[in-house]
Amino acid sequence: MKADIITIGDEILIGQITDTNSQWIAEKINLSAYEIRQITTVGDNKEQIKNCLDNVIPNTDLVIITGGLGPTEDDITKETLADYFGMKLVLNYDVLSDVQSFVNSKGFKMNELNQKQAEVPEHCKILRNKNGTAPGMWFEKEQTIIISLPAVPFEMKEILKNCVLPELQVLNKDKESKIVHKTVLVYGYPESELAELLSDWESKLYNKIKLAYLPSPERIRLRLSIICDSEEKALSIIEDEVNKLKKILGYHIFGYGDTFMQNVIGELLVNREKTLSVAESCTSGNIARLITSVPGSSMYFKGGIVAYSNEIKNKMLNVSESTLQSYGAVSEEVVKEMAVGQRNLFKTDYAVAVSGIAGPGGGTIDKPVGTTWIAIADTYGVSAFKFNFGNRRELNVRFASTKALDLLRLRILSRS
Amino acid sequence: MKADIITIGDEILIGQITDTNSQWIAEKINLSAYEIRQITTVGDNKEQIKNCLDNVIPNTDLVIITGGLGPTEDDITKETLADYFGMKLVLNYDVLSDVQSFVNSKGFKMNELNQKQAEVPEHCKILRNKNGTAPGMWFEKEQTIIISLPAVPFEMKEILKNCVLPELQVLNKDKESKIVHKTVLVYGYPESELAELLSDWESKLYNKIKLAYLPSPERIRLRLSIICDSEEKALSIIEDEVNKLKKILGYHIFGYGDTFMQNVIGELLVNREKTLSVAESCTSGNIARLITSVPGSSMYFKGGIVAYSNEIKNKMLNVSESTLQSYGAVSEEVVKEMAVGQRNLFKTDYAVAVSGIAGPGGGTIDKPVGTTWIAIADTYGVSAFKFNFGNRRELNVRFASTKALDLLRLRILSRS
Are residues A303 and A194 both part of a single domain? Predict the structure, then answer.
């Protein structure tokens, strides 16, 4: 089956924002056994939207539209779709109640614009939105399903996951081909090195399996997918391949599916009833933020010190002034004292410390921008590791944070 | 004048990568007085590419194509374009010399695949590529210019900047229309409320100005753009409207262009030579992370305490046990003691403290998930404010962090 994505928004056409929704949708829809035929971005313009629909609908089975559903005048997708499908806009009381709840939860009052969000094309199926005021809408025309979703990513994602994908699954349950997939989460190799390491395995991979590398600073997702008639058989084929991967990659596989390093660490600490705190200089709270992105992290995470200045490293973490002066803040000696100081101060089983030069300023010949020391302290002592994460400030922080979490993960695993 | 962008690549359609080239091209082309009509992504498929060109060329003045120019078999853009325009592929010696230089510079040898990169459609204009093996190509058909560029961002950008934009400028030098933009950054209103507040102004807006609302949890960008023959005149028209906006929105305008709250705070603190620290519970390092995303933030930011547990609030920030017991961690009393304790501990001019229930657990009837207290302490004392940011953990943290920064901004402004 074929699917099209249409993104509506002047802000994309003038280059003000990158359309990241389409990638997310493409990946999800792809896993529901649709091949994406085309992605089209058009402006908030009635005629353009209609022309685009005219071009797309006869050539595809499913159209996912995002954008143009806000309450303001420049957003015209809903009116355009109503017009295109020859429907009137009518007030929908379910949607009105959703909008009211949402608006109230934010402490705001209903106004005319919000009320207008509850007017929907009369014969479309409503996909309710708990996270915003614009409902999703499901239309059908000439055997093609056309779905309109808001462009705000978390609203769009929730509606797609909760209302669209399950419904598509039901509709397509009699069609023979199913896509079965498993994602292996790998950390610690650049993509090209991983590809080289896996080239032999890849060349012998069961020929119906499609392999995709999905790299980001936090993890490389290796997605194995297979289209087949028997789900059971497909799962067993994929499991065989994953077992081979385990032998090649060992501890570099940190999980499966869609989890992150911080979730894996959470499980390890909960299972072992251990606690954690962090002392952050260049990552400045980012590791703490990642750790607490896991619901329930208060069970094992006590908090930490953001020690951005040397004064705070000394005063709070007990890093000695002479160490700071002799070796500089970005050094093995300082980061070890930070980790030990943090562990003592917060009385946790594990402490992580990071000190680095995030850039753009602050680099020297000996310690160029990107130089980063990470230390892990536990009851057995403290170890430190040196890295260079390059010269882009934001990426640097992301790389350093994930590496610190991975070192912690390996430390926990090595002691149990 | 109108322009279209076509991106060619299977990897985008399966959701493997985000197409960031289109945003960059859109912005650049837009500033050359082209309005982008549509962005289309198609696969590495001859028929699809031809269909797309058939649909696009009659409706636009300029087409920028990226992708599908690599040396491997899946890349078919060049052959498809030659075929589409009825041209043969011929060896071009200028390109061959470029390819040879490039390959040599990397320490590799020429092979058959590289040699093939120097074959180009016979009557197209070549746009030479110093950074890779695929040249850009310039075609014309029915008054429309069609330009094909490699998808590697660095190669594409260099060719566009050096060969395409200057050429377009020469071609269009007699055409008078220019696009001028200004973006006003607003915080503190939901989009619908802002739209209501501005409806009167909007209805009287100079009729050639296009207005767009671009909302995110961190800010609403109000983009005013105008196409006109004189840049000077356009700027003055936009400036008039911005002045009217200033009267309506006052301090809710926190900046212009593409800045963020943390950058504005950085400037305020640097100008006043003041220092800052933060005490974070539910935001757990996120405010510290935002503040230090600004290069040079070490000039005013000393760091902070991530006080995720009550024990740490008490031990580090000196929040009294009786306050914690009487009022609970998420309360006016506790957040004020956190801010004052933080300010004393780190000896900073300003301290921000946040305590809230990020969810999904931990809510009660009196204090539902999302309840958040924020306090700002300075030399004049401490103030606290209560909010509810809803029940989604991650968003909650983003909303709370930006609100805390905004309260700090207003506090700094109110004292100077």
Answer: no
Q: If pLDDT is split at 50, 70 and 90, which confidence band does A392 have?
A: confident
B39 and B166 in a common domain: yes
Asked if residue B239 and residue B94 are part of one domain, the reply reads no
Instruction: Please name which of A163, A268, A75, A25 lies closest in space to residue B192, comparing C-alpha atoms.
Output: A75
- The answer, for A170 touching chain B at a CB cutoff of 8 Å, is no
Closest residue in chain A to residue B296, using alpha carbons only: A361
Check whether residue B246 and residue B309 sit in a common domain.
no
The CATH code of the domain that includes A363 is 3.90.950.20
Supply φ then ψ for residue A211, to 5 degrees.
-115, 130
Q: Are B124 and B160 in contact (CB under 8 A)?
A: no
Quote the number of domains for chain B. Answer: 3
Q: Is A240 exposed, middle or buried (0-12, 13-18, 19+ CB in 10 A)?
A: exposed
Could you say which of B229, B256, B283 is where a domain stops?
Answer: B256
C-alpha span between B409 and B413 (Å, rounded): 6
Lowest mean pLDDT among B128-142, B325-339, B372-386: B128-142
- State whether B267 and B306 are in the same domain: yes
CA geometry: angle B311, A316, B301, nearest 5 deg? 105
Query: pTM above 0.90?
Result: no
pLDDT of residue B332: 98
What token pair was written down for B229? 């023959």
Q: Do B213 and A302 touch (CB under 8 A)?
A: no
CATH code of residue A228: 3.30.70.2860
If contacts are CB pairs under 8 Å, which of residues 83-142 in chain A contact chain B?
Answer: 105-108, 111-114, 131, 133
**pLDDT by residue (tens digit) across B13-26?**
988 888 999 999 99
Classified as helix, coil or strand, A413 is helix
Banded model confidence at residue B208, pLDDT cuts 50, 70, 90: confident
Q: CA A403 → CA A385, A394, B38, B148, distances in Å?
A: 10, 14, 41, 40
Neighbours of B401 (CB within 10 A): 32
Q: Which long-range contacts (CB under 8 A, 24 or more apart) does B249-256 make?
A: B249/B184, B249/B186, B249/B197, B251/B410, B251/B413, B252/B186, B252/B187, B252/B188, B252/B189, B253/B184, B253/B185, B253/B186, B254/B185, B254/B186, B254/B187, B254/B219, B254/B406, B254/B409, B255/B185, B256/B182, B256/B183, B256/B184, B256/B185
Last residue of a domain, one of A171, A190, A216: A171
B308: which chain A residues are within 8 Å (Cβ-Cβ)? 288, 292, 297-298, 301-303
pLDDT in tens, A275-310: 999 999 999 999 999 999 999 999 999 999 999 999
DSSP state of B299: G
On whether both B251 and B265 belong to a single domain, the answer is: no
Nearest CB to A302; choose among B42, B302, B308: B308
Closest to B96 measured CA to CA, from B135, B63, B52: B135
Q: Is residue B177 part of a domain?
A: no
Note the pLDDT tens digit of each residue in A20-64: 999 999 999 988 889 899 999 999 999 999 999 999 999 999 999
pLDDT digits (tens, 9 = 90+) for B62-97: 999 999 998 777 789 999 999 999 999 999 999 999
Q: Decide: B376 and B405 in contact? Cβ < 8 Å.
A: no
Q: Give residue B265's domain range.
A: 261-414
